[in-house]
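User: Quick one: structure for sequence A, then sequence B.

Assistant: Sequence A:
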Amino acid sequence: MTEGGRSGNQRIVYGVQPVRELLRAGSQVREVLLDRDRSRSEPVEELLALAAAGGVRVREVARSDIDHRAEGQVHQGVLAVAVPFPYWDLGQLLERTRAAGDPALLVALDGVTDPHNLGSVARTAEAAGAHGLIVPERRAANVTPLVEKAAAGALAHLPVARVANVGNTLIRLRDEHIWSIGLDAEGTTELHACDLFTEPFVLIVGSEGRGLGRTSQLHCDLLVRLPMRGRVGSLNASVAAAVSMYEARRRRDSVA
């Protein structure tokens, strides 16, 4: 695994749910900061119990201290300082996927730059049982504190592989007998007619503005479009990804 983080040597995670999931996953948390005036709700009490069980120091501080560390974002009075985010190597992700024993279900983002979309896709991917997420190193959103907050703790459990080139990655996945299904408004196949969802596949989600890049389109085995029956021309990238992942999950569960 490789490490990534805002400052290079630490990872800031804020919000009750993201911090709780970080502790629940056994991640290497250096300390937790808690607003000294925050009420002790059941989720916070659980968070504190997890920190105690893991030997993680908890410091009660002024809310302004957490405001500063969270750079003004909504933090709910809870912030964790942890080791940098552990990106996976693609080979490690594939090994983990094979070991899972069921057909691969991966998600690759091609140029998604909105951190909220990245976090939302990660949250849905983890909930839908995806084996991992693939993101490009450049010209795309990567994992930041804002992304972790949007993911609501999912990134404590979901492996994320960072790759140099999505197109080359799809070639490698084909060698692993993993189909590539691209979401594209101009796709030739409607989502419900896709017959690859029970096979090992990677779902490729394009950027918010231009959609899938030309290289990714060329390396996809199938371009799928969502049926649009209303007046709106397309869906948000994370919403389209969610609809597609759960269609795949429905299809897989129906033949299990």
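Sequence B:
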Amino acid sequence: MRKFFGISLSLILLILNTNLLANEKKEMLFYIGITMIKPVNVLAKKFEKKHNCSIKILQGGSQDLYESAKMSKEGDLYLPGSLSYRKKYLKEGNLLDGKFVGYNKLSLVVKKGNPKNIPANISTIVDDRYRIVLGNEESGSVGNATKKMLMPLGMYEEAIMKALYLSPDSRNLTKLIKDDKVDIIINWYATTFWEENKGLVEPIVLSSKIAKKKKLVFNLLKSSKYPKLAKQFMDYAASKEGRKIFYKYGFLDDKDLKNFDKVTF
């Protein structure tokens, strides 16, 4: 009888442990570029409820985030501010499947109401009359994209020399305008949609021939503990519901929505 009781107790404990593991929340880690944090936060909260999981989001400059994911060998998804990071690092093997969710595009950004009447002309970025700060290409996608935009125009070196200094990411750039420490920045257009920004800053939209759209693509990380669940999140972000959220925050327009399913990368 004692032997039978011991086996039964072991079985009960095994069943209890199995049930506990089954009910334990899966914890995922996402690396998200600062500019995209708003829509991803909204999507993450909805996804957590539906799939009984928890999502931790690390935000920062796209380059810094990739280095963190690479060094730690932890995390499930990576969303940089430009497709260039996927193209640059795909051969390293840390980035697997990808999913397109929208576009980033650069814009001049000034104080709300444009008090200095700054024109929609890229040459203002080297005008001595204005206080200017640019993004640092070595830390964030906005600096990297700024260099790529200005180099073909022959303006990058001059702009760097005339800038007061370089800012690490899009959030810090916006804060400089809000604090009235600079007159012009080049930043991602979508940052002007943020609730805390839209009453204090405004975009000066540049020609699409100059400020070309940058594709935003979620990347499944090789280190993912839950690749199936991570892929489900990517699919959700690219679904009709996900598109509406990215649209709300300025990463898609009406034309983009119409052509969404035709986008390749």
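Residues 2-23 form the longest helix (22 residues). Residues 1-7, 11-21 have pLDDT under 50 and may be disordered.

User: Thanks, that's what I needed.
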